[in-house]
Amino acid sequence: MSLPDPLLRYSVDAKPVHDLLRRALIQLAGFQLKRLVADRPGLCSYEPVEAARSALSEAAECLRSLGSPSGAVHHRSHLQAAAAALQRAVAAALSRHDRDGSDLFRHLEDAERQMRSVSRALPGFGPVDFGQACCAAHMRLPDASALQCSG
Amino acid sequence: MGDYSIWVLDYAAVKTFPQSVMLYGPQYHGVRNLPYAYVLIKGRGEVMLVDTGYDHQQYGKYLADLYGVSNWHSPADVLGECGVTPEDITHVFITHAHFDHMGGLDLFPNATFYIQKRELDKWIWALTLGPEFRFLVGAADPADIMKATRLARDGRMVVVDGDREDVIPGIDLHLAADTHTYGSMYVTVRNDGARDSADSWIFAGDLIYTYDNLTGLDTNDPYLVPIGLAVGSQSNLLFASAEMLKAVGGDHRRVVPVHEDRLKDTFPSRATANGLHVVELTLATGEPSRVG
Ligand SMILES: [Zn+2]
Question: With an 8 Å Cβ cutoff, are A19 and B148 in contact?
Answer without folding.
Answer: no
